[in-house]
Amino acid sequence: MKTIPLPKTNMDQPTTTSTSAEQSAAPAMGSAVAPRAEIAIEMQNLSAWYSKNQVLHAIDLDISAKQVCALIGPSGCGKSTLLRWLNRMNDTIPGARANGKILLHGVSLLDPTLDVVDLRRRVGMVFQKPNPFPKSIFDNVAFGPRLHRIYSRTDLEELVEESLRASALWDEVKDRLESSALGLSGGQQQRLCIARAIAVGPELLLMDEPCSALDPRSTASIEELIRELRATYTIVIVTHNMQQASRVSDTTAFFYEGKLVETGPTDVLFTTPKERRTEDYVTGRFG
Amino acid sequence: MTSIAARNAAEISQRGRLRSAAFQGFFEGSIKVVLTALTLLSVLTTIAIIAVLIEETIGFFTMSDHPEISIWSFFTGTEWSPLLGAKPLFGVLPLISGTLLVTAIAGIFAMPVGLLTAVFLSEYASPRTRTILKSVLEVLAGVPTVVYGFFALTFITPYLLQPLSTSFGTYNAMGAGIAVGIMILPIVCSLSEDALRAVPQSLRDGAYALGATKSDVTAKVVIPAGLSGVVAAFLLALTRAIGETMIVALAAGGLAHLTANPSQQVQTMTAYMVQIFLGDAPAAGVEYRSSYAVAFTLFLITFIMTWTGAIILKRYREEYE
């Protein structure tokens, strides 16, 4: 029996599996110095434009594997743009361009000859507003696997179940997999979108303010899910909510006007920031 | 500047409301009366038309000098020859088959072409190309149907159909059907395009983020999500094709006979009515009355189609909501 293709694909370069990053449960309250983790994504001198408008200025940022990295900053600071370059979603926007380097396993993601279909299979994305397809719950999760034909027919049901379990939705929907996804609540829809992204076996999950359209209870369930998913996936999350960043992330990067102001372990950045502007922002003095 | 506001406030407190309540009440009331009257106008027109149709149709079936005409013989008769021969025959099936044949040809041509054009306009074309193509389609929609009629007669049939097969006569169902198809193309296209463009961008983004290509997104997300609108566009266009008159009166011929052969000439229900009302059939004669029965049949067909369409749409919506 074929195993369900959850990550560990190591396609381009064999990299050693991270063992040093075995995290204990409490993310924020741990030691001040986070253990040195394997680098999942490396950004060097990354600048980005929409037409003539420069939105990112020479960003250098490493994102550690199997950790949650939060991108924070006031609206228009470029954090969503950065996220959308990590899976080349900006390709769909006319006039969007970038230079510098984004490396995933040593492969440049900005390479115009890169197979973006494969990239997006390996770098999943969850959007601000839940966007399930107007199809059944099952068909939503099976959409990606069917697209990439990465299942044998008998595996599909198992893959859907596993993805829904991983996104903590299985128990709520197992009896109505064939009913429309649009009948789910907002929080359930967002978890369905996470299951849909997981089903194609990504290594990275990008989340663009995944809770901003949800009520507090659904937000709590998504945050709990993010903490669980960290064991398997590298997660980059854009958020406007300081508490959320401190609750779910291991490292935080603060952006202001297209520049990376400060980055570091979340507890350090929130308690003893080096930069004045970071302190002002995380304490709510502006933004 | 505040002095004006202050003056107004003073005036209001002095004289009460500037517009008297009585005038306001009268004004609002009369607006409602006018709007209701205008709405009633269209409702009454519809009722009047249906009433005339029914009355004349009953008159046709109960003519004392034609006891052979019955509802049964009308709807099951396979011969329609009201003007020729010693004994006129009124079996409506040839007219229905002619109408459906022309409509089917038009649909087979216009639905795929229109939908694919809509897909191109909505998903692939640049904004500039879209603007240009949409204005071309608007021109197409503005062409009088009589022009399509002689286009079928003088171009489609002699230059496209007759070179393919000598069996095509000057008047034939195929040429008329294609011309009707071209006529309904803008309807299919612009309504389908509206339906496709109404599919939220967030669904496209969701599919792209899973590694879908543009054709995946179009075929597996956009078209299924916009399907109810596309089906509605098809139904509206087909209803329009069934009722089309000028093209078929010019190009389909005038011989009513039961056939599914598109190279033959056929007569549609609408073309028969034109023939009767333009020809010298005496008013109140049996031919004259028969056209009302035909009109009522046509009305029933389009009514059933619209109704079915509404039911189909409702099904789809329930599935998606």
Give a structural overview.
The complex is a heterodimer of chains A (287) and B (321). Chain A is an alpha/beta fold and 287 residues long. Chain A has one domain: P-loop containing nucleotide triphosphate hydrolases (Rossmann fold, 3-Layer(aba) Sandwich), CATH 3.40.50. The relative contact order of chain A is 0.18. Chain B has 13 helices and 2 strands. Chain B is mainly α. Helices cover 75% and strands 1% of the residues of chain B. In chain B, strands 1-2 form a two-stranded antiparallel sheet. At the A-B interface, helix 2, helix 3 and helix 6 of A face helix 8 and helix 9 of B.
Jot down its keywords.
heterodimer; A: 287 residues; alpha/beta; Rossmann fold; 6-stranded mixed β-sheet; 4-stranded antiparallel β-sheet; 10 helices; 10 strands; 31% helix; 23% strand; B: 321 residues; mainly alpha; MetI-like fold; 2 domains; two-stranded antiparallel ribbon; 2 strands; extended
Task: Examine the coordinates and then state which fold CATH places here, giving the name of the CATH topology of chain A.
Answer: Rossmann fold
Distance between the termini of chain A: 52 Å
The CATH superfamily label of chain A reads P-loop containing nucleotide triphosphate hydrolases
Q: In one word, what is the shape of chain B?
A: extended
What's the layout of helices and strands?
The complex is a heterodimer of chains A (287) and B (321).
Chain A: E1 39-50, E2 53-64, E3 68-72, H1 79-86, E4 96-104, E5 107-108, H2 116-122, E6 123-126, H3 137-148, H4 155-166, H5 170-173, H6 186-198, E7 204-208, H7 216-229, E8 234-238, H8 242-248, E9 251-256, E10 259-265, H9 266-271, H10 276-282
Parallel strand pairs in A: 3-8, 3-9, 6-7, 7-8
Antiparallel strand pairs in A: 1-2, 1-4, 4-5, 9-10
Helix pairs in contact in A: 3-4, 3-6, 4-6, 6-7
Chain B: H1 2-15, H2 21-61, H3 71-76, E1 80-81, E2 89-90, H4 93-124, H5 127-142, H6 145-161, H7 173-197, H8 201-209, H9 214-225, H10 227-243, H11 246-251, H12 269-278, H13 286-320
